[in-house]
């Protein structure tokens, strides 16, 4: 394992590598949890039904967000001036349609989407779905329906109070922080490509193959060394997030680790591909930086993808950072590993394509 040990030593000897993978993400993680840019959502509610059920819906929203008084006249101004993140309109005959089992659609307005506002919308949709189930099970009997709803709310609110994450704001901060963890792991692109080019420049690449060391063993040890560095980085930053900032990593932090580790494989594959395309360490560093920052921006590491123009959202589907952030968002907002299988498979496909391209390029150079 000469190559493996050599890469680890080189990483530890150069402080810049440590800064790229660990210090920079850590600085932004601290800012994510100390800044005011991840605040509890402010929701405006316009009630055109004025019934007990619409009041109960408003009470449930108050457990998740700050409710602001809004009217039909001023809702646009409130949104434009950022007085509220979103406005929900409860239509007339809301209670009647609910008890009769007829389709109901609440109107909602927002200027720009965020993880907090989307989380509120998800909560309201789930709450309405539960009410529809209760209305069907009670056969439209108003008294039985309200008894079932009171029982549901009592249990629901108890669960909410005892939960380790009681606000969308904490999830918003967690997603901001995880975006910078992804960005830090993407720095492996620069580290891996630079190390390989240094081997070639110092003729170590040729000397290695005068020994019994095979090309396959060289590549495997290289990949393992970078993945080891990634694993240590992930575990360290996740420990800081959980123990230092009580980050809301969803029902399974192990699933979050798996997504981050899979993304690190993609980062390594891109680094190896870059090393097969360039001719010097300087070129490797320059090309890495041209890829890292734009991919991070397109993928939603610095801000939600939903606030970018539509054409950029379409382009973002072709960068791996997007799929890493989508998977993490699903997990943080309560989904399980089964819900991110497609995202993981797409990340693995990215890695496979980049590894194959790098292998083809190496073979072409050798011939």
Automatic annotation (TrEMBL):
Membrane topology summary: Multi-pass membrane protein
Major localization class: membrane
Protein name: ABC transporter permease
InterPro entries assigned: ABC-2_transporter_component, ABC2_TM, ABC2_TM_bact-type
Pfam families documented for this protein: ABC2_membrane_3
Keyword Chaperone listed: no
Residue ranges occupied by any ABC transmembrane type-2 domain in the UniProt entry: 142-365
An annotated Gene Ontology molecular function: ABC-type transporter activity
Alphabetic keyword roster: Cell membrane, Membrane, Transmembrane, Transmembrane helix, Transport
Membrane recorded as keyword: yes
Family indicated by similarity: Belongs to the ABC-2 integral membrane protein family.
GO terms under cellular component: plasma membrane
Cellular compartments annotated: Cell membrane
Membrane spanning residue stretches: 177-197, 223-248, 254-278, 290-312, 340-360
